[in-house]
Amino acid sequence: MTTAKYKSIFLAVFLPLLFFSLAKIALAAPSISGTSGTWSHGGSVTVNGSAFGTKTTAAPLVWDDATGGTLLDKWDGKYPNCTTDHRYDPNYTTSIRGISLPHARATKYIAGAHASTGSANSECGYDVGFWKFRPTMPGYPSYTYFSYYFRVDDNFQFGLNDGDNNFKMASVDQGHVAALGSPYTMSVNIGVPYSPPGSPQYVIYSTNERFDIPDLNGHSGFWNFNGNDWWSGVWTKIEYEYKHSTPGTDGWLKVWEDGRVLVDYRGRFGLPPPENDLTQTHLIGGYSRNYQINTTTGTNYRYYADVYYDTSAARVLLCQNNTYSSRGICENQRATSWASGSIATTVNAGRFANASTAYLYVCDDAGACNANGTAIVIAAGGGGDTTPPSAPTGLGYNRDIMKNSFQKSFLILFTLALGLSLDSSSAFAAGRVFSDGFEDGTTNAWAPGESSGYYAKCDVVSSALDGVIGPHGGSNMARCNWDGTQGTYGHRSQEMIKSAWSKSRESFIRFWVRIDSDVDYKQGAKLFRGPGAVSFSGFQFEYGTGATLLSTIYKSDSTQIGTTNWGCGPEVRDGAWHSIEIYLLESTPSQNNGIARIWVDDGLCWEATSVNTDDPLGAGYWADFHMISNWSLNPGWDHDANNHTYWDDFEIFSDTGTGMTGSMSAGTITQGGSDTTPPAAPTGLVVQ
């Protein structure tokens, strides 16, 4: 590491999870009365309303979608910038190393690696990032806002060097980086000091008392275990907002991921005279302990896309959801003029497909935003052809089909032929955000059961103990065991968890499971469950040899959602592979519009519709999956040391992914290709 020459604050990211609500700013918020112009990608529109505030320069200081010129045409420096070999320097590139673009409208991203063909230093391998020098600010308070899509390489190697996985994400330094010589010592850093899998935890601290720790709300420097897994194969939209303020105590530092607030520091954010820091360097990226040396095949890449950076909190957003507090992923718009009652902007549709609905927000120069979004329909013109098929004629119904209206054949017919929405979710892109067939021979994509790692993770094997049948697909599968001789809670020796996948409201989980013949024919074995907050807790074998699945959901205060199904679907202890699929649509705040469904072997087994999933203890979202859980300890439910289950072809889809075909809510989703041609209009449909 280089020696710090300037005083700095650090914001670090560690690993595992908790949710924080965004405190509202007690200011007159902007109000939108309407818009004019066509909301097509690249088009020009005007937003009308009131209390938009002021913005001296309407356009952001930097908008970088990685097109045109070079990285240093827009930024003041970058790392690595290795004089001996530039192969790992951050640069614009089309898709590399199998890493897809964050959305269909992106054509390039920024990629750079923590790697060096020789030894590592601040110029070669330690740091990956790019920075902007901010000349003297007008005084306090002043604001900074920036956002970008982010992920790391699928083959990013953790645990290198000291093994603490330090991974910094963003920084602010007092002074000009040219005088410092390196952007490493900054005032905002994000790191990952625990080995994945898991979820980033944000930590802020200061070497020069620029922060108040604890802050005005009594919060320590450690923040939120709710961060997305940047290494899980999906992109995350990260936003930062700083209010630089001193010597007062009204500053703040906020970080959002996919619209969820993860850091909401309140207090001093700056230095008093004569050591004020009105001249700063802002880095996007930073140091990682996981640097690779003496290699020409480095894998530790970071990827950035659609970077928006500005020296004002005033901004225009198109977001996924209709309230700012639960807005989901947002696309920053590029304003061209700004007045208190009118803003002209160039449309950036980003992830939003043509004909989909997004919600419009304006934030003023103090960061106050309208609480409820204005619905905007994205028009054609900035993307591919989204002309729907001709309207079908002569449609009727089949009475036999209607008797089984929740069967997939019915849902597929109406999804493909009519394009009907099957639930109240938004028309946002969807696709696979996680998959594991265990073909790499490891369970590295999973965390051990319980946060303390008390339970061992499941094993990866190529054959079953009972010899009946091998993996469902490929050469490997996971094997988990309930050990009834264990004295721990739940009598299990193995459990592993997949947590914090990228999503907004919708998730769909699909996997294959097989029960070994050594499993005791007793009740109470929970095959899997969901998170500890809104919990799919209790999918368990029931009625002894019947071995059907009990299904129920509870919130964190033990309030039940829906009803209990005391056994549904086929018997699953028959030695065969069975597919289980789970659909989860979270309700919007205080509304009864949540949905949960389970299919076993393609048959709808259980569902709860029009339910409220608001969580009393504030966790409020489905975001983890436990592969096997406890075996209840009721009298007569005892079991021996060997009760094995096998798992394979595990997939998670969500409304933040892309590239799907089919429907999550109908249980028909698959990861498709890029062909989005609509089906031909059906003909010859008759009433039977």
Description:
By secondary structure, this protein is mainly beta. The protein contains three helices and 40 strands. The strands form eight sheets. Strands 4, 6, 7, 9, 13, 14, 15 and 17 form an eight-stranded antiparallel beta sheet that branches. Strands 24, 26, 27, 29, 34, 35, 36 and 38 form an eight-stranded antiparallel beta sheet that branches. It has a seven-stranded antiparallel beta sheet with strand order 25-28-37-30-31-32-33, with no helix packed on it.
Radius of gyration: 26 Å
Please indicate the percent range of residues in DSSP E strands (runs of 2 or more).
Answer: 25-35%
Mean residue pLDDT? 76
The major pleated sheet works out as:
8 strands, antiparallel
| Helix share, percent | under 10%
The number of helices is 3
Number of strands: 40
The parts where pLDDT drops under 50 for at least 5 residues are 1-26, 190-197, 382-428, 532-547, 673-679
List the helices and strands and how they pair.
Layout lengths: L8 E6 L16 E7 L6 E7 L11 E3 L12 E3 L11 E3 L15 E5 L13 E8 L7 E11 L17 E5 L2 H4 L20 E6 L15 E2 L12 E9 L6 E7 L2 E8 L12 E8 L13 E10 L4 E5 L10 E3 L1 E6 L2 E5 L10 E7 L10 E4 L21 H5 L4 H11 L12 E6 L10 E2 L10 E3 L15 E5 L14 E4 L6 E10 L10 E4 L7 E6 L5 E7 L5 E9 L9 E8 L8 E7 L2 E9 L12 E4 L16 E11 L5 E2 L8 E2 L17
